[in-house]
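Because showing beats explaining, we let one protein speak, sequence and backbone structure tokens together, and leave readers to judge.
___
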Amino acid sequence: MFKKLENNRPFLKLALEGFAGDGKTYTGVEIARGVHKLIGSKKPIALFDTERALKALKWKFDEDGIEAVIQDEERSLLALNQAIKWCEEGNADILMIDSITHVWEEFLRAYMNRPDKHGNATKRNRLEFQDWGVLKPQWKELFSTPF
């Protein structure tokens, strides 16, 4: 009935918002480095980089001798879900996603261009009310809950 109380929640979940050029990526890297040091991680920091901008900040990780591994070829929700699972398997303590906006946009684009029941592309240009009943559970299952 009772079990030992343990903190099995993530140390930190953080989202940065701002205009282009405000320094979100730089600030995210600084936070990731700081958390890596604070928790004493010996694992690499995983970077899911849809912006393809994190390579320019490699020197920040090198300054601290922190290995960073990157996935910068994908923007799909499925690829992000696989990255989260990879981290959960013990490969990384920290995952930085830059930017979730691209994943969301790709998710919507794929949904609107999915084949209909006859295999023909739908090529829709807007969502309808009933679409949210499909989209939200998928997003929750593949991103929100695992994250």
Residues 26 and 56 are 10 Å apart (CA to CA). The mean pLDDT is 92.
